[in-house]
Structure formats: structure tokens, C-alpha cells
Design goal:
Elements lengths: L2 E5 L2 E12 L5 H15 L5 E8 L6 E8 L2 H7 L3 H11 L3 E7 L5
Antiparallel strand pairs: 1-2, 2-4, 2-5, 3-4
Length: about 110
């Protein structure tokens, strides 16, 4: 379960995920795959934010910063093209993944 904050009737989901590429030779491929995943994810209903950052200190490290309208939107994302054809089969096998569900402090 990811962190959520209620706004009116909906629970906003904040997902921050650190990815570390296992083999430095795969960094360029992973960068391009994450770029494609971002572009597709942003077109999905309920995706309010999907950013991909690459560390300046360690090029093997990426950070995904996602915000979803609610849990059903995130659940649908996990069944959509970006997740099922890019992230799950092509990215996940080549990275170590550390999710950080988060709560926005206002």
C-alpha cells in the first residue's frame, strides 16, 4: 500500500521509488525505457505527476516521483501499457527497486 492523503472525497497516492541499475552497461537503456514509461503514464487517467530523475552523483540511480488521484488510478496503471510492456518486463529485471510511499507535509 502506498501513502495516501485525502483531498475531499479522493485519497491522493504519493509514490517515490528509487531504482539502482544493476549493471552500468544498462544505464542508457533504462534511461530510455523510463522516458517512454513516463510519457505513457502521464497520459493515463488519474496520473497527476510522473517524473523521472537520474542522479548526478551516481548515474546508475534513478528516482521516480509519482502522484496518483486515488488507489483505483494507481491500480489501473499497473495494468496499463507503460507498466506491463515497459516497467515490469524490461526495467524491473535490471534494477534494484526501493519504494518509498510518502506523505506530503504541508
Amino acid at each position: 500500500m502506498l501513502a495516501a492523503r485525502t483531498l475531499g472525497e479522493t485519497a491522493v497516492i504519493y509514490a517515490n521509488i528509487w531504482l539502482t541499475v544493476k549493471d552500468a552497461a544498462d544505464v542508457d537503456e533504462i534511461r530510455e525505457l523510463l522516458r517512454q514509461q513516463r510519457r505513457l503514464s502521464l497520459q493515463e487517467p488519474g496520473c497527476e505527476r510522473f517524473e523521472v530523475y537520474q542522479s548526478n552523483n551516481d548515474p546508475k540511480v534513478f528516482l521516480l516521483v509519482e502522484r496518483w488521484k486515488d488507489q483505483p488510478s494507481l491500480d489501473a496503471h499497473r495494468l496499463a501499457t507503460a507498466y506491463t510492456t515497459i516497467y515490469q518486463p524490461k526495467v524491473l529485471p535490471k534494477v534494484d527497486r526501493v519504494p518509498h510511499p510518502s506523505t506530503l507535509i504541508e
